[in-house]
């Protein structure tokens, strides 16, 4: 079957030149399906994971329409396109794509996100822009001070909408939508389609065309998925041993917490392995520096929380390591999707301690894939957590031992004093 080319899609000449410069000739499946529909002005519900080319699927038709209507819209610049994204990294990535595709167009854009100073962003909006790419919270913040308004928006895009709702942005998103004109072309893209996304799509989309290039949840066929059952105390050493393999050229290691990401990154640095960490507690500048080091090859390992599981596009990631399994099985799918991109193969290695065996079962149930076990089989599941420790017996061997805090006190003295303090002062009879 003959493949559709970008040249056959009828995009404006400046866009065709930009595509040629980037050596883009064949659209991805979602681009081939979405661009003709969007050029006709249809609202769209797109179901696609990151790495499928969906940014180009909405950026190219929006830029085409902005350019072809340019003469009709002369006058002070007013925002005509608004793209909302859940994270700073994704907003920057989308903004960069708009600039690359629109390199030959007289289009001005602004990228609005938190973690950096507000004044330059407010100033850019006050000068006038055609396109805003933003995270919802910061956009609401700066719009209170900027002279620019959103009453001229003709194109609205919600990208990674499910992630946006997971992060608690639904109220901010609805406030922003309420400030937009009713007459607009709206697009919603999501990797999954839970009930709240279906409900949101019904609120903002009018007779949308549905474009779906992947199932609701999918694991990439070319990813070799394995699991190693290992106690928590041995995970750091195992990671170091695995990274002795030179085939692990560019690796993302996922943890559940920010604190763990820092500890793993520090451990690798002490072991002589170039690594950096990225998570929500780091400033935007630090996060961008870490990503650039990873992309440039100056950091072999990027240790990340789930902030990097979606929307971060880094080429040639050879391995993904789940240092800690996610407690939401959908996050596993997005994590391992950082490798085996653009037709390449990749490997996902998961560390599973006894307390995480339930997470592994949930992942296998969701994906329909039994992950291959490498090394020792799993041990017994971790016992359920105790609801509390019983007070030690006064006469038995568990009597409280002296320490720096209770030395010189009689056993039970501290407890008695706390009980009296909790009762507080005596109350007079009413």
Which characteristics define this entry?
disordered C terminus, seven-stranded parallel sheet, 36% helix, Rossmann fold, 14 strands, 430 residues, single chain, 15 helices, alpha/beta
For the largest beta-sheet, the strand count, sense and barrel status come to: 7 strands, parallel
Pattern of helices and strands: HHEHEHEHEHEHHEHEEHEHEHEEHEHEH
Number of domains: 2
| CATH fold annotation of the largest domain | Rossmann fold
Straight-line N-to-C gap: 91 Å
What does this structure look like?
The protein is of the alpha/beta class and 430 residues long. It has two domains: 6-212, P-loop containing nucleotide triphosphate hydrolases (Rossmann fold), CATH 3.40.50.300; 223-373, Rossmann fold (3-Layer(aba) Sandwich). The protein is built from 15 helices and 14 strands. The strands form two sheets. A seven-stranded parallel beta sheet has the order 3-4-2-5-6-1-7, with helices on both faces. Strands 10-11-9-12-13-8-14 form a seven-stranded parallel beta sheet, with helices on both faces. Helix 6 (136-143) crosses helix 8 (170-178) and helix 13 crosses helix 14 (357-367). The protein is globular. It starts with 12 loop residues before the first helix and ends in a 7-residue tail after the last helix.
Concise synopsis of the structure shown:
The chain has 15 helices and 14 strands.
Topology:
Layout: H1 13-21, H2 29-39, E1 44-47, H3 54-68, E2 81-84, H4 88-101, E3 109-112, H5 119-127, E4 131-134, H6 136-143, E5 155-158, H7 161-166, H8 170-178, E6 185-190, H9 195-204, E7 209-212, E8 223-229, H10 235-242, E9 251-254, H11 258-270, E10 275-278, H12 284-296, E11 301-304, E12 319-322, H13 329-336, E13 346-352, H14 357-367, E14 372-373, H15 413-423
